[in-house]
UniProtKB/TrEMBL annotation:
<dbReference type="Pfam" id="PF07676">
    <property type="entry name" value="PD40"/>
</dbReference>
<dbReference type="InterPro" id="IPR001375">
    <property type="entry name" value="Peptidase_S9_cat"/>
</dbReference>
<dbReference type="GO" id="GO:0006508">
    <property type="term" value="P:proteolysis"/>
</dbReference>
<protein>
    <submittedName>
        <fullName>Dipeptidyl aminopeptidase/acylaminoacyl peptidase</fullName>
    </submittedName>
</protein>
<dbReference type="GO" id="GO:0004252">
    <property type="term" value="F:serine-type endopeptidase activity"/>
</dbReference>
<comment type="similarity">
    <text>Belongs to the peptidase S9C family.</text>
</comment>
<dbReference type="InterPro" id="IPR011042">
    <property type="entry name" value="6-blade_b-propeller_TolB-like"/>
</dbReference>
<dbReference type="InterPro" id="IPR011659">
    <property type="entry name" value="WD40"/>
</dbReference>
<dbReference type="InterPro" id="IPR029058">
    <property type="entry name" value="AB_hydrolase_fold"/>
</dbReference>
<dbReference type="GO" id="GO:0004177">
    <property type="term" value="F:aminopeptidase activity"/>
</dbReference>
<keyword id="KW-0720">Serine protease</keyword>
<keyword id="KW-0645">Protease</keyword>
<feature type="domain" description="Peptidase S9 prolyl oligopeptidase catalytic">
    <location>
        <begin position="453"/>
        <end position="665"/>
    </location>
</feature>
<dbReference type="Pfam" id="PF00326">
    <property type="entry name" value="Peptidase_S9"/>
</dbReference>
<keyword id="KW-0378">Hydrolase</keyword>
<keyword id="KW-0031">Aminopeptidase</keyword>
């Protein structure tokens, strides 16, 4: 351990902050951003900060016990709109860049979000979730008492969401609000989900995305539409054969870029690409068609909550190119492409760029960056010279205290010769000649990516004396389209062998790993794989499974994504080939599970519902072959470990460490009470 440094603790989570969603001012001289933290009451707070790029002066635009987010500059640079729950529901507020009290713009009873300024600065487009009898005119202060429902009629398959809970018959609709008067004009209606995009440069059209096919439950397309703001006929730019998002206009209004994939059969197991439609010619082109790299940030961490605003493709002023984020081999960087597909990396490195804002006139891009020792900070980079300046250091004091080992990059081969990639963290207390237990960590998705980003849980285990192995088995993003599809229909097959190859490689390469003290842990798909592994081998002496899957047959009907996820990923359903779902279900092997297992699950998890944990727990307890413990987190969704209740997140880390301490730091197994 470095002199006078200590290892990170679970409780250090309460001190970790991060910066996100940078937005450069129209003149490129200032940046507004969001800083997230946990307050002394162990509740989340998010505030807006304004920083000068000239003298680095920082001003707190908002303060207090509030959660403010999504700041966006008015075209003239005088005002910033943002989203806040300070009135109760999420609403759109305005604040002068010179300070002062914010002014509430919307008062919608169902809330408002995703604000986008019109080019003239007089209107803001936004979205709200409405039931059939709701209206944008319904005010948050209206006396409309919500009586408990005695019965609920369900008419759609997508009636619940891990993000939003039970949505039943509600739909996301778009409207435009006048900045001066607050008057609202609805733009969309009907039984469809709509997402705000961007205004055309002349302010006459709004580019949005929506699924407006006849059966939205069974046809999961997401199309790009142009909606005339003054009313009239919509223009559909895509053909309902894929999923598209983040439409952005070229400066001259002649082209529209968007991110997505086009495949009638693969909506999940696929890389995203960058597309452009020439609105004059009516042609659609996949700009990155010959580049086998995922467009967007797919890196998994456990400090920053998911869902950071994606700027999509950002046009150059001459309309001949775009800037965008892409993910490759554990890193996400900033790239530029010409319209004929010549791609260059603008900002790279061993790190995770999860947001950016660009001003071409000032040759400046502000980046939101994480790496293995940085939870989330902002950097400014000069597009001409490549010179980079760090703008924030929000965890300076905490990081000065901590010893954080750098991961060792690993390259190895799977059993069938596929090239594989991962990392290993040494224990903080590492001493040559000593032996240490090792924990294999498995990411969720499975179509996501471990990489060079900050991971509190990994550093915590390293601080407690463990080596930590984390890899990207087939099915992960970041290694090409064939790689990401390779696990479909083969869950527990070659993906399992890839992970076992990683363990074998690590144990053969690093003599400090104690092969008699190996653990395994994972969440979501990683939880599925943890369950699968302990049904195949007794190599691991302890396991921790989070928000996991054990039975694909029941998952099909209880998960918010179950019916379409199992068809694409497992390639089975209960009414044509139920044996396929059962074949890949870990609970099928429960009689062979002899590894001490800690099961943790959120009670409000709609993605992998808690019945999955309940099934596994009862089966293991009933047969009584090995210690098993079941911890339920009331009110927690599938996002427990990334954006859940702060105290529950810390408890989860503590339980994980305690379980491994019980079974891996001793030569004999001890039953944990």
């Amino acid at each position: 351990m470095v002199q006078d440094k200590r290892g990170i603790t679970a409780e250090d989570f309460y001190r970790i902050r991060y910066a996100s969603d940078p937005q450069l001012s129209p003149d490129g001289r200032k940046v507004v951003y969001v800083q997230s933290m946990v307050d002394e009451n162990r509740a989340y707070q998010t505030h807006l900060f304004l920083q000068s790029l000239q003298d680095q002066t920082v001003t707190a635009l908002t303060t207090g016990e509030v959660r403010d987010s999504y700041p966006r500059w008015s075209p003239d640079g005088s005002t910033i709109c943002f989203v806040s729950k300070r009135s109760g529901k999420s609403q759109i507020w305005l604040i002068d860049v010179n300070g002062g009290e914010p002014r509430q713009l919307t008062r919608c009873r169902t809330g408002a979000g995703n604000p986008v300024w019109s080019p003239d600065g007089k209107r803001i487009a936004f979205s709200s979730t409405l039931a059939p009898d709701d209206s944008f005119a319904d005010l948050e202060t209206d006396e409309k008492k919500e009586l408990p429902r005695k019965a609920i009629v369900v008419n759609r398959m997508m009636y619940k969401s891990d993000d939003a809970g039970f949505v039943y018959d509600t739909n996301k609709q778009i409207a435009v609000v006048e900045v001066e008067t607050g008057e609202i004009t609805p733009l969309t209606e009907g039984k469809y989900q709509h997402t705000v995009g961007t205004w055309s440069p002349d302010g006459e059209w709004l580019a949005i995305t929506a699924n407006r096919v006849d059966n939205t439950d069974l046809h999961l397309a997401l199309d790009v539409y142009l909606v005339p703001v003054a009313g009239g006929e919509w223009k559909k730019l895509t053909n309902s054969a894929g999923t598209f998002s983040n439409p952005t206009w070229s400066v001259d209004g002649k082209k529209l870029a968007y991110i997505g994939n086009e495949s009638p059969t693969r909506m999940i197991a696929t890389q995203k690409s960058l597309w452009v439609t020439d609105l004059e010619k009516g042609t659609q082109t996949c700009i990155t068609a010959n580049w086998d790299v995922h467009v967007g940030d797919c890196t998994i961490g456990d400090v920053r909550s998911p869902g950071h605003p994606n700027p999509g493709g950002v046009w150059t002023e001459d309309g001949q190119g775009l800037y965008f984020i892409a993910s490759e081999r554990g890193n996400s960087g900033l790239y530029h492409t010409t319209l004929d597909g010549k791609i260059t990396q603008v900002v790279g490195g061993a790190r995770n760029i999860y947001g950016f804002s660009l001003n071409e006139q000032s040759h400046t891009v502000v980046l939101a960056v994480s790496d293995t020792r940085t939870a989330g900070d902002l950097y400014a980079s000069n597009l001409s010279t490549g010179e980079e300046v760090r703008l924030t250091d929000v965890n300076h004091d905490l990081m000065e205290e901590l010893a954080l080992p750098e991961p060792i990059e690993l390259e190895y081969q799977g059993e069938d010769g596929w090239k594989l990639h991962g990392w290993l963290l040494k224990p903080v207390c590492f001493q040559p000649g000593e032996k240490y237990p090792m924990v294999l960590q498995i990411h969720g998705g499975p179509h996501s990516m471990y990489g060079n980003t900050f991971f509190h849980e990994f550093q915590l285990l390293a601080a407690k004396g463990y080596a930590v192995l984390y890899t990207n088995p087939r099915g992960s993003l970041g290694y090409g389209d064939q790689f990401v599809q390779a696990c479909c229909g083969d869950y527990g097959g070659n993906d399992y062998l890839d992970l076992m190859s990683a363990v074998k490689f690590a144990c053969q390469t690093f003599d400090f790993i104690d092969t008699e003290r190996l653990g395994v842990a994972g969440g979501s798909y990683g939880g599925f794989m943890t369950n699968w592994i302990i049904g195949q081998t007794n190599l691991f002496k302890a396991a921790v499974t989070d928000r996991s899957i054990c039975n694909w047959l029941s998952f099909y009907g209880v998960s918010d994504i179950g019916y379409y996820f199992t068809e694409e990923e497992i390639q089975g359903n209960p009414f044509t080939n139920p044996e396929k779902l059962w074949q890949h279900s870990p609970i099928r092997h429960v009689a062979k599970m002899e590894t001490p297992l800690l099961i943790m699950h959120g009670e409000q998890d709609h993605r992998c519902p808690i019945e999955q944990a309940e099934q596994l727990y009862i089966a293991l307890q009933h047969q009584g072959k090995a210690p098993v413990s079941f911890i339920r987190f009331p009110g927690a969704s599938h996002e427990l470990s990334r954006s859940g209740d702060p105290e529950q997140r810390v408890l989860r880390l503590q339980y994980t460490g305690e379980w491994f301490d019980t079974y891996l730091h001793q030569t004999e197994k001890v039953v944990m009470e």
